[in-house]
Design goal:
With 290 residues, the chain is an alpha+beta fold. The strands form 4 sheets. It has a 4-stranded mixed beta sheet with strand order 6-9-10-11, sandwiched between helices. Helix 1 packs antiparallel against helix 2 and helix 5 packs across helix 7 (264-272). The longest helix is centred in the first third of the chain and has 32 residues, at 68-99. The chain has helices spanning 5-28, 68-99, 105-111, 126-144, 166-177, 223-242, 264-272, 281-287; strands at residues 37-43, 46-52, 60-63, 155-156, 162-163, 182-184, 188-190, 193-195, 199-203, 208-215, 251-255. It starts with a helix and ends with a helix. The protein is 45% helix and 17% strand. A hairpin with a 5-residue loop joins strand 4 (155-156) and strand 5 (162-163). The protein has 2 domains: 5-100; 123-287, no CATH class.
Amino acid sequence: MRYSCKASVEYDLKNHYQLRDLYTEELAARSEYAGCQLKRKASRGIEYYYVRPSDQDEFDYRGAGIDPDVMMIKEYAFYKKAVDVIEANITALEELLNVYRQTHAENINELLTRTYSLPRNSSVLLDDLAASEWLEAKVQKKNSYPVFDPEGLKVTAFDGTKMRSRAEAIHYSAFYIYNVPVIFEYPYDIGKDVLRPDFTILDIYRMRDIIWEHLGNWFHEDDYKRKRYRSDSVHRWDEYYSIGFRPEDNLLLSFGTDDNVFDIQSLHRKVSALALPPPDIETIRILKRS
């Protein structure tokens, strides 16, 4: 099991189709400016424009201000160029899909005739099979533990997953947008304790866990609550460290403010650094059981 480059291309192609429809509609709305031309002159840092309508031979002077016709001609040129670029990309993506073959070991093996195909237990195929088994084991372990404090799961994420806060639901959506597979509150046994970090990111390629915790009350306005919250958090980090999780390596953190909000753009930048191509059908099937 691996992430599917083909699925990524198909996803990109779908976006191109939608964008082409949108830009073609905008282009059509400005069709009366087809064939119009602009001429620009600059003097002392000021730009002056001239317009030649499609049915005239001479340019009309429009000055240095914001002229409606000048802007519409520019917008027409923008959407015309955009549609041309999108059409070229669509052609290239469609041609790629026609000839593309996924290079997963199992996929290549399936392309061979039965005479030449490798047995399922071949060492050549073990890497793909090991990744599937690793992911399957993660999901089975999560499901084997009772849900912790179910009464506290008061927020519903976009896919119906129950969570404890709106901030967690926003994080969960960001992981989905960037195709980062996660398990919410995956259990880790540390001595007699069971710790359940907010999210465990599943790095399929390296078959390793990455913990992500959102510290919503790190900057709580109440001094006592803030200090208690920070003390508990640092204690958890020490426990995570004891099982191999280190900050900014495989232990990632995000923070709230004194009113428990955070910069969503900053969150998306951080999550996008973990982005992978869209998961294949097998990955989605396994994760849905968690």
